[in-house]
């Protein structure tokens, strides 16, 4: 049984316009070229290692190629903070141009020197230079756009940095095809190296043409140790000496209370291991399957194209499906794809199944990011954490899988009669990693699953149709709950949104409309609906209240809410009234969680206790850009309204994330539209949750609908 997800009449369009800022656009061109060079250099240097070891046995060749990958990943794991600190002291333009020219020179030198040690050394040096380049671009980009476009700028940067990977793989395959038809075996790896070098030269020229680079004085450099990020996990960040001294216990409790985060780490490791293992042996595996370097490039292309599609399409296709379930499932699909890659020894099949593995990994990446952001309330930090887990797992895969393939060696398995099955070392190593991935997938699915008892297949099928699956007995129970509303159980409707979005206006309009149709309605608000609440409101919103810690603020809002539920909401609902509240728990999740960057999961727990688990039957989310909402407010801004734009922007995004995570409970509306239009949509939705819907025809016939105007 399914029910429709919340209607989304207004999908908050991200502010557009970064591409119209010429210096930023030019920087993105330079970043795209440099990133293209980076991805090409990984393929070209590993191909060179393969060419230089072509006379060695499988084991020797796999190990040298694995060593090149390790040399290219190790600096990012060990030296990122050092490189960040160094880059911050250097001139930005010179660093970027110098880094590109250096990479050009290193790549040209590799075929000229033509030795394994120099190829390894160059791989390491190219990666070190890349490490200097990355923080400079990271620091320049956001400074070139206005504050409100910073998120867009970050997204554009990530697209340029990662979106070029599939292009690089396709280009490499084409170059490898050309080289195989034109050069001797010993020289076939040279062409991709020279082309990569030229791409870096192009990136240097693009930076040289960029006159408007911010100077070195501006802040914005950040490069954290991947190891530290992984060990720190998604624990709340310690921000002060007091916290460090006194809150260890609380943090441990918080971590344990955040459901699914252990499953999250395991899922990320599982999927990165599967992807990393394919990359680690793709070169030798393609050779075993008779594909040469073009085959190697095709496997990389399959993987990276799948990854891009998965990351982009996953959240769109599986919209209403539980993200936690989806994360566990995508790890299982990636591991199963790896089983197929290891056993079906046909290059074309391997390329396509690599695409499937990439697709699953992309879905896991975007879903993992959403799950982590939801738990921490900090998208950037979650993103960095995911990147660090993928990097370290990739490094381990590159270091361990090729030697494992060599040690395992080839196996000739007799299947009875004349038939036999050949399983080479690479295939066997991939099979072992696939089994590990399956275990990680199963355990993480169990730990992450937040819809236990709901069968998976109908749930998935409903999600693909844009709906959320509901058990028949659940629907009956919900209908019965609604029916009891007029018989003594009440209905609870909350209005949420940023400052000046129109919550007070719309909650009043809804209440008038409901009363007009005979319901007992209690309108209320947070904070400050009770006597104690009014004192808390004064304390919380008074600008004289300075130095209030984020945790104390959260608890004061929760205290107001506890009093509100116990003395106003519950009693009204118990006598069957409809309660309409201007703000409820989601305000704390959005303001104190996303706005103040505190863990959303922990705030939800505190509030669940404070409200004895009360959840609105419907939450109307009024979305309005902060500048518009704050512009609507007349009079002095209070303590929260006075927070910077960034804060209110995080709050807006926080509300959206909450609504998207539970679409059935929300009605998301574009609050910039005329009041009457908004209130009409709210009435339609309220009608649907009332036990005895007010027939629209009644209104038409009797014209009882009051002419409501804003007082
Ligand atoms: N749809 C609308 N279009 C234009 N103005 C509106 C709209 N809805 C409300 N307003 C006006 O915006 C101002 C703020 O509205 P309202 O007090 O309802 O917002 P709010 O979300 O409750 O604000 P706050 O966060 O301060 O509680 C009021 O002057 C109101 O008349
Ligand atoms: C319930 C709640 C509120 N806030 C903030 C949001 C607003 O800035 C004020 C309340 O003012 P309003 O004019 O009545 O909307 O408080 C919050 O930060 N956390 C909460 O839980």
UniProtKB/TrEMBL annotation:
- Supply the CDD domains for this chain: TMPK (cd01672)
Residues noted as binding ATP in the record, renumbered to the chain: 497-504
What Gene3D superfamilies does the database record attribute to this sequence? MFS general substrate transporter like domains, P-loop containing nucleotide triphosphate hydrolases
| Transmembrane among keywords | yes
Provide the catalytic activity annotation: dTMP + ATP = dTDP + ADP
- One Pfam match, by short name? Thymidylate_kin
Alphabetically list the UniProt keywords: ATP-binding, Kinase, Membrane, Nucleotide biosynthesis, Nucleotide-binding, Transferase, Transmembrane, Transmembrane helix
Q: What class of enzyme is it?
A: transferase
Outline what the protein does.
Phosphorylation of dTMP to form dTDP in both de novo and salvage pathways of dTTP synthesis.
The family line of this record is: Belongs to the thymidylate kinase family.
What name goes with this protein? Answer: Thymidylate kinase
Q: Which organism is it from?
A: Actinomadura barringtoniae
List the gene name: tmk
């Amino acid at each position: 049984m399914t029910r429709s997800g919340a209607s989304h009449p207004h999908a908050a369009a991200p502010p557009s316009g970064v591409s119209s800022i010429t210096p930023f656009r030019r920087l993105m061109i330079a970043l795209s070229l440099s990133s293209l060079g980076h991805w090409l250099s990984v393929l070209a240097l590993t191909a060179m290692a393969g060419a230089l070891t072509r006379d060695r046995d499988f084991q020797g060749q796999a190990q040298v190629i694995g060593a090149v990958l390790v040399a290219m990943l190790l600096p990012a794991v060990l030296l990122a903070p050092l490189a960040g600190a160094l880059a911050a002291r250097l001139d930005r333009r010179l660093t970027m141009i110098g880094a590109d020219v250096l990479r050009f020179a290193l790549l040209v030198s590799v075929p000229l020197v033509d030795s394994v040690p120099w190829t390894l050394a160059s791989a390491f040096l190219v990666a070190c230079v890349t490490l200097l380049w990355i923080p400079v671009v990271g620091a320049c980009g956001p400074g070139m756009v206005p504050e409100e476009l910073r998120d867009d700028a970050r997204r554009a940067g990530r697209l340029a940095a990662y979106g070029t990977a599939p292009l690089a793989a396709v280009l490499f395959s084409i170059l490898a095809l050309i080289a195989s038809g034109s050069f001797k075996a010993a020289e076939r790896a040279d062409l991709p190296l020279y082309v990569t070098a030229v791409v870096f030269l192009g990136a240097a020229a693009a930076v040289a043409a960029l006159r408007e680079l911010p100077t070195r004085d501006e802040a914005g450099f950040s490069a954290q140790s991947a190891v530290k990020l992984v060990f720190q996990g998604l624990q709340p960040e310690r921000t002060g000496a007091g916290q460090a001294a006194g809150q260890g216990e609380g943090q441990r409790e918080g971590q344990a209370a955040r459901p699914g985060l252990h499953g999250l780490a395991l899922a990320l490791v599982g999927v990165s291991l599967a992807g990393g293992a394919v990359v680690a042996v793709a070169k030798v595996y393609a050779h075993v399957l008779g594909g040469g370097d073009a085959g190697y490039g095709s496997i990389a292309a399959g993987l990276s194209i799948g990854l891009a599609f998965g990351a982009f399409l996953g959240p769109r296709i599986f919209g209403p499906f539980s993200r936690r379930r989806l994360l566990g499932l995508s790890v299982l699909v990636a591991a199963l794809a790896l089983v197929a890659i290891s056993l079906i020894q046909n290059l074309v099949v391997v390329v396509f199944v690599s695409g499937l593995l990439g697709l699953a990994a992309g879905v896991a990446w975007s879903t993992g990011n959403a799950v982590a952001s939801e738990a921490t309330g900090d998208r950037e930090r979650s993103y960095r954490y995911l990147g660090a887990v993928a990097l370290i797992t990739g490094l381990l895969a590159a270091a361990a899988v090729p030697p494992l393939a060599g040690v395992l060696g080839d196996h000739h398995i007799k299947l009875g009669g004349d038939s036999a099955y050949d399983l080479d070392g690479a295939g066997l190593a991939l099979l072992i990693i696939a089994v590990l991935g399956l275990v990680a997938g199963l355990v993480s699915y169990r730990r992450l699953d937040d819809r236990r008892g709901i069968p998976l297949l109908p749930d998935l099928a409903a999600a693909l149709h844009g709906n959320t699956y509901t058990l028949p007995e659940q629907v009956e129970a919900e209908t019965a709950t609604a029916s009891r509303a007029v018989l003594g159980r009440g209905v609870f409707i909350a209005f949420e949104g940023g400052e000046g979005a129109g919550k007070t206006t719309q909650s009043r309009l809804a209440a008038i409309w409901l009363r007009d149709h005979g319901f007992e309605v209690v309108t209320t608000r947070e904070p400050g609906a009770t006597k104690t609440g009014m004192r808390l409101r004064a304390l919380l919103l008074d600008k004289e209240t300075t130095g209030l810690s984020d945790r104390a603020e959260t608890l004061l809002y929760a205290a107001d809410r506890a009093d509100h539920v116990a003395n106003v909401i519950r009693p009204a609902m118990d006598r069957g009234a409809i309660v309409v509240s201007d703000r409820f728990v989601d305000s704390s999740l959005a303001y104190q969680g996303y706005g103040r960057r505190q863990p959303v999961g922990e705030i939800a727990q505190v509030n669940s206790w404070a409200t004895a688990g009360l959840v609105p039957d419907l939450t109307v989310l009024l979305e309005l850009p902060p500048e518009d909402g704050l512009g609507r407010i007349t009079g002095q801004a209070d303590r929260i309204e006075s927070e910077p734009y960034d804060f209110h922007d995080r709050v807006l995004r926080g509300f959206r994330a909450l609504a998207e995570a539970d679409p059935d409970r929300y009605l998301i509306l574009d609050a910039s539209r005329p009041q009457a239009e908004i209130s009409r949509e709210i009435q339609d939705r309220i009608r649907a949750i009332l036990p005895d819907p007010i027939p629209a025809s009644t209104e038409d016939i009797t014209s009882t609908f009051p002419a409501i105007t804003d007082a």
